[in-house]
Amino acid sequence: MNRVMVEKAPWLVSTKLNPPQIRGDIVQRDRLSSWLCETTATTPITLITAPAGYGKTTLLTSLPPSLPSWPFAWLTLDEEENDANNFLFALIAALQTVAPNCEMAALDMLPVVANPDNLENGRSEIRRVTGVLLNEIQAAVPEPFFLVL
Questions:
Q1: 73, 93, 71: which is closest to 81 by C-alpha?
Q2: Taking a C-beta distance cutoff of 8 angstroms, is the pair 27, 114 a contact?
Q3: Strand partners, 148
Q4: To 10 degrees, what angle do helices 84-95 and 104-114 make?
Q5: Alpha-carbon dihedral 33, 68, 78, 97, rounded to 10 degrees
Q6: Cα–Cα distance measured from residue 141 to residue 97, given in angstroms and rounded to the nearest whole number
Q7: Which residues of 22-35 are buried (b: 16+ CB within 10 A; e: fewer)?
Q8: Backbone angles phi, psi at 72, to 5 degrees
């Protein structure tokens, strides 16, 4: 995690930015992995959904070796990220693993989101930060890349 993120979000545990280790005894799902590699190469967003325990994390953790030229950002989400400010800090930290100079303008805007005067002002600020963040991602993050939440 870079120095700026540590200063602005010392509560963010750096292990949230790394995929879990794959055990050696997993069942290889070659057909599913191939399909996922093809799909992610041809579509802008791929959503993987299944009940708990069906292997989503294992499948996604096995992707980087399949596509070594694609940058790979990972963010493990938990209850802390239900707060928009915490989520945006954590998302920016994850994106900075693939583009270290990305999101500085959005990062500078986050203190405004953290202390909104009222609910409507807070929503408006979150929309503004999200817009800035998306523009910075488009400009700075290499294409294509993986972002796993």
A1: 93
A2: no
A3: 74
A4: 170
A5: -170
A6: 10
A7: eeeeeeeeeeebee
A8: -135, 115
Segments in 3-149 forming alpha helices (H)? 3-8, 30-42, 56-61, 63-66, 84-95, 104-114, 119-140
Cα–Cα nearest to 93, from 17, 19, 149: 17
Q: Which two tokens stand for residue 47?
A: 């959503």
Closest CA to 86 of 10, 2, 19: 10
- The residue with tokens 């590699």 is 37
Reading the block at residue 141, the tokens are 């993050």
Q: How high is the mean pLDDT in each 10-residue block of the chain (149 residues)?
A: 56 82 78 83 83 87 77 88 82 84 72 54 76 83 81
What string of DSSP letters covers 53-69? TSSHHHHHHTHHHHSTT
* 96 DSSP 8-state letter: T
Does the predicted model carry a pTM greater than 0.70? Answer: yes
**Quick check: helix, strand or coil at residue 109?**
helix
The helix/strand/coil state of 51 is coil
Reply yes or no: is the peptide bond before residue 100 cis, omega within 30 of 0: no
- Structure-token pair, residue 93: 């930290």
